[in-house]
Specification:
The complex is a heterodimer. Chain A contains 9 helices and 20 strands. By secondary structure, chain A is α+β, with helices and mostly antiparallel strands. In chain A, the strands form 6 sheets. Chain A has a 6-stranded mixed β-sheet with strand order 11-20-19-18-14-17, with helices on one face. The N and C termini of chain B lie far apart (about 75 Å). The chains are: A alpha+beta, B alpha/beta.
Chain lengths: ~400, ~375
């Protein structure tokens, strides 16, 4: 017999969970207590184990899908004996079609879970509680449920979901992508951005990197990023307001005197920003190593919460892919983000002569509530100075 | 002038077995092989019990779970020094105390499922294990409330001249509670035969000990009450046993209470409702895994020649089978009937309770168990 496994309340008062990953396949034989799925809720992330020994017939929820507690996530067939126990999960709420609008509570209404205040409101609205779909997994009807039911009655058939044009793909907004949706919207909605772009002569950094590469040998891959981080921190020390965030509750600007540099990484599931903690205390070699390990963790989806928290400013490096310059979005609630771009040889004037130098554009996007235009320009100048005269980094 | 004891600092810690199971011969307590193996089995049982129980909770088969993984040596090592008439007032990470006293895993599962064979008929929170027969008192969820209870029990034994002592367990967070003060103060003044066993696992749910107290150690708090204390490596079962043994002897000799601060670590979440990655680094957990109390004891037992690969594997297999079978069995036991809700409050049921019972039975039918 095929049975359903319904998502239980995996924490305490958890209402829904996202199927992060199936750890088994359809058709697979599993043992009781064998891990079958990773489930993410707003409270805990858990490894779901199998409540049966038997065969997975079919998944009824996809990876990335957000499932309500009590909703089926898979169908299974288990070996003989226990034809009994339905798991303790509460039944999924169903719409009951009872009689016409009652004035007096029907028998079914008495059995419905609702507080006296909710019952009174239902009578006022002329709604039979027996027909209301509760959203609380315990089956308790709330005032919100009543409002929804009442609104639904007023607009019987509101707009239906846009019909899919054949051939279109529909991708659920879930997991990392859902977080990206939230964070980007939050940043753009709250922060009035302005962009400041300039170019910098990277010839000396190119030379410095070559020296470092030779010194550290083949095992350590040194990129330009550690040097840029170093120059960035030096410039931030001169213009600390760029290393700040806005504390909305206190209505205060929090200027940070520690330097946790977020590095935007394109991971398979989407953009993530692991953080180089206390980057000001680290050498170029250490930074190279840390960037390498954070980036590979990010690509493998192994970042811990601690790896992505506590950033004070973010660097996004579009250079390896292309583009002249970009206008990046600030990693909320930070106040600035630095976009760095490709380094290429260009002819430039130096002392009346045309010479070939390694040039790079960069963009600083700032929170204009906190950072004035002049401040950003002065910061940009310092950043350029440290990159063009890297010896200053050592001297100051 | 006599030196003030308030200034005493106890920052050291007794350790006998190291991470590899090497041990300090001069400190090794004399424990018979049979008891050592029973202690080891109990610790391994607690660990496996947790793995299965957490699975049951995630699958929606039990409602809640609180783990003890990483802290097994504390309850097992200290309970091992007691006599069976002595009393235990646990918090909620001490299933090991009950199991060492002979409680079955099946009975613990009855409690987790809250079925009709549960001693408390499903009225306690899951994981609040007790046994009247084994002198293990039911824990209360509010932190530290068991401390004055234990002191009261011990005082009672002292007054009635019974040769019983009490052992109570609590965590680092409990030392900030009023009940800790009341219990310690009273026990200190009246020399109650009680052992205060503090399992300092570094976090009160998510709050680190550094935010819990400005005291350098928790053990030093005992000085204020005139109670001697000792700090031990809580992941070292021999150290726990030795300190508890000394404390029990003091209590039996009429010398009064002792506080033990055992430094340990919870490897899992606070409970099934907690996600520890939100407040502690994975690195820290990995570090503590190296000090796993079960592995350390296994190392010691191997060095003593009491355990080898084969006997260890067989033991783990036995435990695994026993626990899986017990979980199945307990799950199949019916829940207490609905009428039982009205029992056990008054010796004979009052008229209004009777009325409510009849109404309830009228609605659900007699003997209704929720299925």
């Amino acid at each position: 017999m095929v049975r359903e496994f319904k998502l239980p309340d995996v924490g305490e008062g958890v209402a829904e969970g996202e199927i992060r990953k199936w750890l088994v396949r359809e058709g697979e034989e599993v043992r009781e207590f064998q891990p079958i799925a990773e489930i993410m809720t707003d409270k805990v992330n858990v490894e779901m184990t199998s409540p049966f020994t038997g065969k997975i017939v079919k998944f009824t929820a996809k990876e990335g899908e957000v499932v309500k507690v009590g909703q089926s996530i898979l169908q299974y067939e288990s070996e003989g004996e226990e034809a009994e126990k339905p798991p303790l999960a509460p039944p999924a709420p169903q719409i009951r079609q009872d009689h016409a609008p009652p004035i007096i509570e029907s028998r079914s209404t008495v059995q419905v879970k609702a507080t006296p205040a909710v019952r009174k409101r239902a009578r006022e609205l002329g709604i039979d509680l027996g027909t209301v779909v509760p959203h609380d997994p315990s089956g308790r009807i709330t005032i919100e449920d009543l409002e929804t039911a009442s609104a639904a009655r007023k607009a019987p058939q509101a707009k239906q979901a846009t019909a899919a044009v054949s051939g279109d793909e529909r991708i659920p907004v879930a997991g990392v992508r859902r977080k990206i949706f939230e964070r980007m919207t939050e940043s753009k909605r709250n922060i009035p951005h302005f962009n400041y772009t300039d170019e910098v002569d990277m010839t000396n950094i190119v030379a410095a990197r070559d020296v470092f590469s030779k010194r550290l040998g083949e095992n350590v891959k040194v990129t330009y990023l550690p040097f840029i981080v170093k120059a960035l921190i030096a410039a931030l020390k001169d213009h600390p307001v760029l290393n700040s965030s806005y504390d909305e509750k206190a209505n205060e600007i929090v200027v940070k005197h520690h330097y946790n540099i977020g590095i935007a990484v394109a991971a398979p599931d989407g953009l993530v920003v692991p953080v180089l903690k206390d980057a000001d205390t680290k050498s170029v070699a250490q930074l190279s190593e840390d960037i390498g390990s954070l980036a590979s963790k990010a690509r493998a989806g192994k970042l811990q919460l601690a790896d992505v928290q506590g950033g004070t400013i973010t660097v996004t490096n579009v250079g390896p892919i292309g583009g002249l310059f970009s206008s990046p979005i600030i990693n909320y609630p930070e106040s600035a983000i630095v976009g760095i771009h490709k380094i290429e040889q260009r002819p430039v004037f130096r002392d009346g002569q045309i010479v070939v130098r390694h040039m790079m554009y960069f963009t600083v996007a700032c929170d204009h509530r906190i950072i004035d235009g002049a401040e950003a320009a002065l910061f940009g100048n310092r950043f350029i100075e440290y990159l063009e005269k890297p010896f200053l980094l050592k001297l100051e | 002038m006599k030196e003030s004891t308030v200034m005493e600092k106890k920052t050291g810690m007794l350790q006998i077995i190291d991470n590899e199971g090497n041990y300090r011969r001069e400190l090794e307590p004399a424990i018979p092989e049979e008891l050592l193996l029973r202690m080891y089995r109990t610790m391994a049982t607690v660990r496996k019990f947790e793995e299965i129980s957490m699975g049951l909770q995630r699958q929606g088969r039990i409602g809640f779970y609180i783990g003890a993984a990483g802290q097994e040596a504390c309850s097992v090592g200290s309970t091992a020094v007691l006599k069976k008439e002595d009393w235990i007032f646990p918090a909620y990470r001490e299933p090991g105390a009950l199991l060492l006293r002979g409680e079955t895993v099946l009975q613990l599962f009855h409690q987790l499922f809250g079925n009709s064979l549960d001693y408390n008929k499903g009225r306690q929170m899951p994981n609040h294990f007790n046994s009247r027969e084994k002198n293990v008192v039911t824990p209360s969820s509010p932190i530290a409330t068991q401390i004055p209870h234990a002191v009261g029990m011990a005082m009672g034994a002292k007054i009635t001249k019974k040769k019983e002592i009490a052992l109570t367990f609590f965590g680092d967070g409990a030392t900030s509670e009023n009940d800790f003060h009341s219990g310690m103060n009273f026990a200190g003044v009246f020399k109650a035969p009680v052992i205060f066993f503090c399992q300092n696992n570094g976090y009160a749910i998510s709050l680190p000990t550094s935010r819990q107290t400005a005291s350098e150690t928790l053990a030093q708090k005992a000085s204020a009450y005139g109670i001697p204390s000792e700090r031990v490596d809580g992941n070292d079962i021999l150290a726990v046993y030795s300190a508890a043994k000394k404390a029990a002897e003091r209590a039996r000799n009429g010398e009064g209470p002792t506080m033990i601060e055992a430094l340990t670590y919870r490897l899992g979440p606070h409970s099934s409702s907690d996600d520890p990655t939100k407040y502690r680094e994975n690195r820290e957990v990995e570090e503590w895994k190296k000090r796993d109390p079960i592995r350390r004891m296994a190392g010691y037992l191997r060095k003593k020649g009491y355990l080898d690969d084969e006997s260890d594997r067989k033991l783990m297999d036995d435990i695994d089978k026993e626990i899986r079978a017990a979980a199945k069995k307990a799950e199949a036991v019916p829940k207490p009937p609905v009428e039982s809700i009205f029992e056990n409050v008054y010796s004979s049921m009052t008229w209004n309770l009777k009325e409510q019972m009849e109404e309830t039975v009228g609605r659900y039918g007699p003997g209704y168990t929720g299925r």
